[in-house]
Design a protein that fits this description.
Two copies of one chain form a homodimer. By secondary structure, the first copy, chain A, is of the alpha+beta class. Chain A folds into two domains: 132 residues, Sandwich (Jelly Rolls), CATH 2.60.120; 79 residues, Arc Repressor Mutant, subunit A (Orthogonal Bundle), CATH 1.10.10.10. Chain A has nine helices and eleven strands. In chain A, the strands form three sheets. In chain A, strands 1-8-3-6 form a four-stranded antiparallel β-sheet. At the A-B interface, strand 5, helix 4, helix 5 and helix 7 of A face strand 5, helix 4, helix 5 and helix 7 of B. Chain A binds a DNA duplex (30 and 30 nucleotides) through helix 8.
Chain lengths: 247, 247
DNA sequence: AACTATCTTTGACAAATATCAAACGCATGC
DNA sequence: GCATGCGTTTGATATTTGTCAAAGATAGTT
């Protein structure tokens, strides 16, 4: 715990202000006047850096805060008694991690950085307190949680009804869409996760994921070179993923 | 719309008070004094009856309220463009339906009564307003949403990592556990849903579900007669479902 | 540059589940 | 009582994905 405290002090000395953050529109409510925004800066207590491969929190740990990803890329996963692991999500800049911990006051999954990352630490008591004061923040928090519920509904559709190639097409389209919303290319990406992690998320073995990638490559729909992917024919991907839901 | 309005009037004339409801401990926060509780009665605007097979709400419909099941049994499901359907959950007395609608102000799934049912209609603006006034209600709402996120994480584990018999064992154990919490038997139940609906929830075809039921029956773990199920060896079910998560 | 560890790709084969088809059971209405 | 319809069970077969194994690619290290 000691090293974290020291690190927090270092980071807190850097200006920590939502009102001044370029990710504001991704993780804060819109339609906010400047005064409100400045009061809202109080939700974020500190920032925290997480090295690649390190855990932001682990299952069973006491829940105190939710986290907004500032930079880097995370995965969340649950594991069963007998050691099987299920990746439940991948999170990028502007997305919120840790909502699973509210119900039992303990985290219910592991959050692991897939590359060096920085998060804004938002003690949940701050969030609740300010939510009572600012209806627009309250509504925003509810929307964030509801969005997560809807996303998981879509994943259930994917896992329950789609075959391997449909799952991968859906996955790729979702990823580039989110990257594009962050100002990155809508046709090129570098995957931050392994075939095995993709497979875990999609309910497939890594070999099946690899084969689907190769098939798309052979068909000229995408260009794949290990973790680099270029989407050549987005329409073909969308056609494969007919079972498209809006998430 | 007319018939519903008339029905609402009829139902509202019956006493609608959370403070007086025998499901209170399931769907309202605990540790509430009586005065607070009486103010909280305002969250529920009306009650509404839904006949078997009817929809409480449908995907795309404007979101105004969340619903607490008072009696009866529901399923929620999403459907894809090409008509595939995925059951995302089954809800019984005391459980909350409709949280999916908050993010986009439109419902994102269909909620269908599997038997004649009655729900408490809680306009979400009431919920938010009273949440600002009562921190204990605010916390409760957050916990309900977080619980749904955690439940869906477990379903992802089930769909992504478990085979047919494990899925069915997990499903049966979860059902009886919830029924038992409502004062019903922990060994006997009558399924409210068809094999096809179970299959949709579990990512299996109805024939596979039926075969798994038969297998459990042959092994003496359960007794099955159509929709009647008696669990003879709960420990055997738990052993099959090693990948047990606490949901 | 060579070595190592890790991730990825590909092939051959096995296992699980889906599909198709038919029979069965139970409730409903005539 | 019998016919009808819907849901369930069971069997035979097809398809998809998983498993096991080996080779290829990449990045980091010495």
């Amino acid at each position: 715990m000691k090293p974290e405290v020291i690190q927090d002090i270092v980071l807190a000395s850097v200006k920590v202000a939502c009102s001044d953050c370029n990710l504001r529109e991704l993780c804060m409510p819109v339609g906010f006047n400047l005064e409100d925004m400045q009061k809202l800066d109080e939700v974020v207590a500190t920032r925290r850096r997480i090295a690649q491969g390190e855990m932001l929190f682990r299952s069973g740990e006491a829940f105190t805060s939710i986290y907004a990803v500032r930079t880097g890329f995370f995965k969340t996963c649950v594991s069963s008694e007998d050691g099987r692991e299920q990746v439940t999500g991948f999170q990028m800049a502007g997305e919120i991690i840790g909502l699973d911990g509210i119900v039992s006051d303990h985290h219910n999954c592991n959050a692991i950085a897939l590359e060096d990352a920085e998060v804004c630490v938002m003690p949940f008591s701050n969030v609740e307190e300010l939510s009572r004061e600012f209806p627009v923040l309250q509504r925003h928090v509810h929307k964030v949680m509801s969005r997560e519920i809807v996303r998981e509904n879509s994943v259930m559709m994917l896992l329950g009804n789609m075959r391997a190639e449909e799952r991968l097409a859906a996955f790729l389209l979702n990823l580039v869409q989110r990257l594009h919303a962050r100002g990155l290319s809508q046709s090129e990406l570098v995957l931050r996760m392994s075939r095995e992690e993709i497979g875990s998320y999609l309910g497939l073995k890594l070999e099946t994921v690899s084969r689907a990638f190769s098939k798309f490559g052979e068909e000229g729909i995408i260009e794949v070179k290990q973790r680099y992917v270029r989407i050549i024919e987005p329409e073909a991907l969308k056609k494969i993923f007919k079972a498209q839901l809006d998430y």
